[in-house]
Amino acid sequence: MDPAEVVEIQPKTSYLSPEELIELRHKDFEVPAGGLKRTQNEGSAAELQELHGALDALRAQLSVPRIERLAGRALATWNKDQQVAEVLRKDGKFENFGHSKQGKLFLEYYEALFLLEVGRLQLEYCGTIVSIEQAYVLLLGESESERFTHYLVYSALSRAGYIVVRHQAVQEAPVPITSADCVWAVLKEKLGNKPVPSKIKESPLFTAAEKRMEDLKQLIIGQKNQSPLEPGPEKASGFHFDTRKRRAQSESKGQSATKRGRVVFAGTSLVDQLQMESPYGKFQEIFQKFDIVRLDTKNYSMDNSPPDSSLQIIFDLHLHNEGFKKRSPKGPTFNVIILPPQAAFPTHDEIFTIQSQQHVNNAQLLVISVSESKQIQAFLYFIS
């Protein structure tokens, strides 16, 4: 072959020009408006036409070519047995996602799916790259469960700018129980009809305080049952009366006849002296006419059965401007309770029980209800 006839063949390149990169990088697609939302399946021609139009718009939106920087994604593999995603390569900031265990970073199912949706994670399973559609089935499950509801709330709150982490009950530092705490607990139980906390009831000082209060009660009852004319034992009461004669003081002119005729017997207490007067008798007669109902303490006990599983705190919400740190987080701004579809809203007593049993900080409760149509409604509860 003649060297002059040799033609240089240039390989076909697959690189895009800068103009094409910019155009495909910021490619926008406007979805046509569908009008009012239909609530019932009519099966009419207009409804079928709207359905086909929505499907065509979705195909056109998915068929638009896009470019992304592959190096900007983190790499993780899904562990089906532990139901977590192990991060193999990090890219970008992960201070608000995942939890560390034995030097490795793991993502919960809702964190992995959220990062996959926003294009920050490449998830693999059994050596194969998982698409978003496959990730919904793999991470959330094929059957209906609360996972989809939790992820729906997590995604909405994360996109709104909150730092959403898994709820962790705050463990209070142990405080030593004193004798005064036991005495006040007994008084609140007897007078205020409030249950005694379990940590005070288990203290060895509680038995001694309860016995001492019972002895004082029996002593007071014994003094009450004695006749006013019979002096009580001086050793039991601890009082010593002066037996010396005193000169009678001159009565003032403005003193009423009732006060002049009042006789104070030795050895009687102030309560016994007041019970001898006629106003006390009238008051006791009126008081006995009231219908007094004693509250049941077991309904307000904080040591009984735990609250309903549907009222558990799922997430803790933090604000970005509060300096959140995953290693040493501050108290959350909100605690999130997620209600499944058609679930009743919690009452005041149920919310109080949740806060008491889970040792929640002074954070406001955010109760989020998810309807069957996957609409989210949030209600803020604050108990001072």
Automatic annotation (TrEMBL):
Record InterPro entries: tRNA_splic_suSen54 (IPR024337), tRNA_splic_suSen54_N (IPR024336)
Region Disordered, annotated ranges: 224-259
Domain of life: Eukaryota
One GO CC term, this protein: tRNA-intron endonuclease complex
Keywords: tRNA processing
Biological processes, Gene Ontology terms: tRNA-type intron splice site recognition and cleavage
Residues of the tRNA-splicing endonuclease subunit Sen54 N-terminal domain: 61-124
Family per record: Belongs to the SEN54 family.
Protein name stated in the entry: tRNA-splicing endonuclease subunit Sen54 N-terminal domain-containing protein
Organism: Drosophila ananassae
Gene coding for it: Dana\GF24994
